[in-house]
Amino acid sequence: MEMIPLDKIRISASNVRAEEYFGDEEDKSFVENVGAYGVLLPIIVTPKGDMYNVYSGRRRFLAAKELGMTEIDCIVKEVHDEGALDISLIENIHRKNLDPVTLGRALKRRIDRTGITASAYAKKLGISKAKMSQHLTIIDLSPDMQNEVQAGTVTLKEGLKVVRLKLPQEKEISLAREARESGSDSFKKTLAQITGEQETRGAPPGLLIIRINWGKRSSEYTALKKFAKSEGIELSEYCQKILTEHIKSRKG
To answer: Is residue 123 one of the residues assigned to a domain?
Structure first.
């Protein structure tokens, strides 16, 4: 551990929150807290030329800069870029206040950089394949809708539903604008309406067939609901998904 001048430190691109905005009310409160009590825990940095990269402790570092501090306690570790990103992801992945889009982008960056499969990386991080899939899928939204997920106006579950609707981009942008300008309740109402219209055009017949043949109380129906829940999607979406995959495999 050593004291390092702040002007010798920068935020590593391997930090999950590298691109996250700093300066909202929660951040301002955190700066005040640091001003009153100091930086209680050292940040973790790795040497990079004549500089040091922060890969854990970004908010503490930014708060110290905001307060005009000149140096900060650091734990110096030699870590390669992928290792630093792994540590940052593991540290943040179970924190509730890390928005799904920021996390999804970081996971995608790590996977693209090294070529590791999503399944293998999920295992390395100790999360389910379904959770990994959700985080990677959410960044398929338009930038406008991603902004609403980051702001919390649109939940992860709602965002995933929008992705799977495969709406034209202008329609998705309009839906994001409604969430931003009219609020969550208005957005949910319109989303339910759009979902209902799409289901009427053909998605749920597979669900109807299952109910007729097996019934809601059957073990098969219960199992399908469990599988759908594990992937974070509705039963009708799950049925459509597995039927589509089956058709593709037979065509192949």
So the answer is: yes
Q: What is the model's pTM?
A: 0.53
Q: Tell me, yes or no, whether 119 and 195 share the same domain.
A: yes
Query: Is residue 71 included in any domain, yes or no?
Result: yes
What is the Cα–Cα distance from 237 to 252, expressed in whole angstroms? Answer: 22
pLDDT 10s digits, 111-149: 998 889 998 888 887 778 888 999 999 999 999 999 999
Q: In what order do the strands lie in the sheet with 51-56?
A: 2-5, 71-76, 43-48, 51-56, 9-11
- Answer positive or negative: Cα dihedral of 18, 22, 26, 27: positive
Return the closest-CA partner of residue 56 out of 29, 74, 70, 72. Answer: 74
Q: Are residues 122 and 195 in the same domain?
A: yes
In angstroms, the Cα distances linking 239 to 164, 211, 227 are 13, 12, 10
Give the integer Cα–Cα distance in Å for 33 and 27. Answer: 10
Evaluate whether residue 164 is within a structural domain: yes
Domain that holds residue 234: 205-251
- Specify if 80 maps to a domain: yes
CA gap 193, 221 in Å, rounded: 26
